[in-house]
Amino acid sequence: MNSPSSAPGTVFVLVHGAWHSSWHWARTQRSLAHRGAASVALDLPGHGFDAPLPSGYLLPGQPGLATEKSALAGVTLEECAATILTTLREVRRHYRTVVLVAHSAGGGPASLAAQTAPDLVDRIVYLSAAVPAGRPTFADYLGAPEAASADGRQGLHVGDPAALGAFRINPVSPDPGYIEELRLTYYQDVPAEDFARWHLTLSPDLPLAIPTTPVRLTADRWGRVPRTFLRLTEDRALAPALQDVMITEADAVTPDNPFTVRELPGSHSPFAARPDELATALLADAD
């Protein structure tokens, strides 16, 4: 375990993934604090307490859930990156070292933020996250053959993403089979009785732009920032084989600055299942 002095002057900026929010990092933040490390978790546009809900989402029968256009349809990837940049500029004034941590779909906007202002970031950590280096969009990777083992994801989508302007799921579904599939896809190592609390904190819509907007990463900007990939070995949402493809293709873009790869056991959501192990892994490259 790292001592409290292992990361003096370091702050972790935590970016959530699809349908999640800042509060999902709470257990990890407590673990980081116990180890003497500061952190700040942010909400991407359309997430967290301010996340808009489809009008029938909380009504009996959930009328229109599969057809009502998302209030997040106009949210852009650039707006998401701008939110991250605002936080990076704020913390840069107070901390010597800024570590940007992105989970899952948060990797796209985090990568764009680092590409835009690489001097604000001392290290990027991708927690089983999108790395749009070898291919321009996260969606390009999700359609790859290596993603085939993550087949539960497609069965969880509600409606047509192109028509809705969002990738929509139903975290409050009355169907216990659906909720169990949601758990098995993203939280399979969290017991069902505990997941009963976690799934109610998810929001239904991920703006379509986050996984589908092309990101151009260059070796002289994004590529000069040291980076770590936390590879989740039993991930059912972003298969380990797909994580490996993203790592390999990113390293080909910046062969002189390859990923430091670390592994954690378990599901796509270690912030829920093993926050202490996650905090320790984050601190490993913080100096």
TrEMBL record:
Alphabetical UniProt keywords: Hydrolase
Gene3D superfamilies: alpha/beta hydrolase
Highest taxon in the source lineage: Bacteria
Stretches assigned to the AB hydrolase-1 domain: 12-280
Stored InterPro entries: AB_hydrolase_1, AB_hydrolase_fold, Sec-Metab_Biosynth_Hydrolase
GO molecular function: hydrolase activity
Protein name, UniProt field: Alpha/beta hydrolase
